[in-house]
């Protein structure tokens, strides 16, 4: 007797990808990501003003951000008292989970003939096998690419983690004004990732784009060191967004190409762990730097680290692979 049919069976069928259509899957993935990030920033945008109202200083707020980063890094649930934003976030996340389960295919990456696959009958590694996950970082070229990703993201991560405090203390912005600024930042991210990077990737190599992003980080860092008003910050935001988006897209592409199809999900998970790592270390380090040296220190750190990264990239170019991640 055949078992009961479920929507998941259809998702895992080989023909599902062609039935649903690749463009529909990509569009739905963008929508789900937009829902999740919108709900997340609905809560994060009011957190610094709530913490200030409760009497927390920048150091205490840094500890709060570190706690959030640790929980995010470990993948544990974050519990809190129910407010309107968390309720809406929970409902929207539930909707995203339903759409993911019913409409996204189980596999969206085609099989590659030049990658190693485990022999038939060999034991399958557990999803909680940390040694198997760590082994991905020992593959050829992966450690250097991953180190570039972490190092270049670290200075900007420090600044962005402390931005809510900077927007209140340094820029003297109200909650609504800070929200408009973050909306401007998010809009530029959407345009850059959705339109600009796609056009550039068709004309330039990943190596060239990676160097360009690091060079842009250096220029933005120099401008940030001399920044004195929110108007100056708005002028350097496009360069900052270009650097962030290009670096993350290119390094993610390089890292996923360096592993087999079966390890793509694990590698994407490692790539996604960079931001929680920065949210874990960033608030404490960023809070100390901000209190001790002020806003210009973030620009100085960004210039210093990315100059070193650029020298490494020029001395030993990154490998170029023919296969492209669509």
TrEMBL record:
GO MF entries: transmembrane transporter activity
Residue spans crossing the bilayer: 20-42, 54-75, 87-106, 146-166, 178-196, 208-224, 293-314
Cellular component annotations (GO), alphabetically ordered: membrane; nuclear envelope
Keyword Secreted on entry: no
Membrane topology listed for this record: Multi-pass membrane protein
Keywords recorded for this protein, A-Z: Membrane, Transmembrane, Transmembrane helix
Superkingdom, natural source: Eukaryota
Main subcellular location: membrane
Compartmental location: Membrane
PANTHER family in alphabetical order: SOLUTE CARRIER FAMILY 22 MEMBER 18
Protein name: Solute carrier family 22 member 18
Organism: Rhinopithecus roxellana
């Amino acid at each position: 007797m055949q078992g009961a049919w479920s929507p998941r069976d259809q998702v895992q069928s080989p023909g599902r990808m062609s039935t649903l259509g690749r463009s529909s899957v990509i569009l739905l993935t963008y929508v789900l990501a937009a829902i999740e990030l919108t709900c997340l920033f609905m809560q994060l945008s009011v957190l610094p003003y709530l913490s200030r109202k409760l009497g927390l200083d920048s150091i205490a707020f840094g500890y709060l951000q570190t706690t959030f980063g640790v929980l995010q890094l470990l993948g544990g649930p974050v519990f809190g008292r129910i407010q309107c934003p968390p309720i809406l976030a929970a409902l929207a996340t539930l909707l995203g989970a339903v759409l993911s389960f019913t409409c996204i295919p189980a596999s969206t990456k085609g099989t590659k003939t030049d990658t190693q696959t485990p022999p038939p009958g060999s034991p399958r590694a557990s999803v909680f096998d940390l040694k198997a996950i760590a082994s991905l970082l020992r593959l050829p070229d992966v450690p250097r690419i991953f180190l570039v990703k972490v190092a270049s993201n670290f200075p900007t991560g420090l600044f962005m983690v402390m931005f809510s405090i900077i927007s209140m203390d340094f820029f003297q912005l109200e909650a609504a004004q800070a929200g408009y600024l973050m909306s401007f930042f998010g809009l530029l991210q959407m345009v850059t990732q959705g339109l600009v990077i796609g056009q550039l990737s068709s004309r330039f190599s990943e190596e060239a784009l990676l160097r360009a992003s690091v060079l842009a980080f250096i220029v933005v860092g120099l401008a940030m060191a001399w920044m004195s008003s929110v108007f100056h910050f708005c002028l350097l935001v496009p360069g900052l967004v270009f650097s962030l988006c290009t670096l993350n897209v290119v390094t993610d592409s390089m890292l996923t190409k360096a592993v087999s199809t079966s390890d793509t999900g694990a590698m994407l998970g490692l790539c996604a762990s960079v931001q929680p790592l920065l949210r874990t270390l960033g608030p404490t380090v960023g809070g100390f730097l901000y209190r001790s040296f002020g806003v210009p220190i973030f620009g100085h750190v960004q210039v210093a680290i990315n100059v070193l990264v650029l020298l490494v990239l020029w001395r030993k170019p990154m490998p170029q692979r023919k296969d492209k991640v669509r």
